[in-house]
Amino acid sequence: MRIIGPDYLVFGVDDLEGAKTYLQDFGLKPVQLDATGWLYEALDGTGVVIRHRDDPRLPAPLPTKNMLRQQVFGVEDAATLDVIEAEMSKDRRVNRLADGAIEFQDVLGFELRFQITTRRELNMPAEKINAPGAPAQRGPNELGVWDGMPALPRSLSHVVLFVPDIDKMVEFYTRRLGFVITDILTGAGPFLRPAANDDHHTHFFIRTPAYMQGCEHLAFHMGGPTELMVAGDRFTRKGYQSFWGPGRHKFGSNWFWYFNSPLGVHFEYDADMDKHDDAWVAREAPNGPEASQMFLLQWREKWAPGGGPEGGPKG
Amino acid sequence: MALLPLCHRDEIPDGAARGFLPLPEALRRVIVVRRGQRLDAYMDSCPHYTGGTPMAWRRDAYLNGDGTHLACHAHCALFDIDTGDCVSGPCLGRKLTRVTLTEDQVGYLSVPAHVAGCAARKE
Ligand code: FES
Ligand SMILES: [Fe+2]
């Protein structure tokens, strides 16, 4: 089953104008889909679809107040859609749409849609670094940072869900959809990746009571840690609220910086995530501050030493 | 009791909320919501997680889209503006920490000095 990962996530929001401004400032590009819907896309065309929560074009809401309405997965080929349709039709209703995509609910009632992926192939360099002992990645006169340097989300990376019954959910995504568990934070839940994606995770499940079911956060890959810092710094300066980070996770090794949003979930910039293949053996660690990050930093206003005592450096 | 000034009541538009740092180095803002003449103030500290976390999605954006509740824009928790009780979302059964507002004769608002060092969620 050649599932690649989320192409986009659909939200039904109560503050449409606020959400539009937010997504644009986050670095996503608006594409109007129809009279009432907008896709905000990363550089590869993955992203977030928003509509007002009363829009009849939206799939049904979750029983909670969470605004996530649907996860849209991209797959490599039509054969994968056929296999998923056959497998799901065993015990649930599957809708085949005119464009060939299929829709159904997972075992806990999350709305899913699978389609041949719409993501565009990216061809751009990762952040380059220079270090003694290794060949220089940036040649002579090639600068690492400059004012106005681009720092835009490249691709929708992962989705984190609050799930009331984690065993059912894991069984459904691994046995029925072919996801692989890469690591487990005991007390929270597992990281998963689908078969056609070597990223450490496209999904992470967190065990919660039923009244919390929904999306906890979603993340976009950046070109590297510097782009992540630059994007987060610019976003903070525009008045947006940091929630956690910047820092670097242990499982997945990805840099992270999370922000609150009017979609009622966190939006995360991430960068430089580990890759895995089927030879990998999942690790397990108790969930908590130690296991969840290598280090954690906090944004502050620009400051520099200066204006000190007589004879010292002048600010 | 030492007081820290926040603002004049007219600096908070009717039906809106604003967040104020009581001191430049304070750990959390104080949220003031104005509805007509009524003012309610709470710590900007969602009780979902230990330590409490800031709730707005952008500076001063503390209300839900309909303006009916204070909201934590981390995970959609909604709070009753009158009482601070969480009515929906992850912190159901918990409440926001209320802050006592003092208003002088001409409408300037202030809060007790201890709130500048206050971050933790009340257990
Ligand atoms: S941190 Fe406020 S609802 Fe989760
Ligand atoms: Fe994440």
TrEMBL record, chain A:
SUPFAM superfamilies with a match to the protein in the record: Glyoxalase/Bleomycin resistance protein/Dihydroxybiphenyl dioxygenase
A Pfam family this chain is assigned to: Glyoxalase
Gene3D superfamilies referenced in this protein's UniProt entry, alphabetically: 2,3-Dihydroxybiphenyl 1,2-Dioxygenase, domain 1
Domain of life: Bacteria
Domain VOC positions: 155-272
InterPro entries: Glyas_Bleomycin-R_OHBP_Dase, Glyas_Fos-R_dOase_dom, VOC_core
Signal peptide: none
Protein name per Swiss-Prot or TrEMBL: Glyoxalase
From TrEMBL, chain B:
Stretches assigned to the Rieske domain: 4-109
PROSITE patterns per UniProt: RIESKE
Annotated GO MF terms: 2 iron, 2 sulfur cluster binding; metal ion binding
Keyword field: 2Fe-2S, Iron, Iron-sulfur, Metal-binding
A Pfam family annotated for this UniProt entry: Rieske
Protein name stated in the entry: Rieske 2Fe-2S domain-containing protein
Organism: Paracoccus aestuariivivens
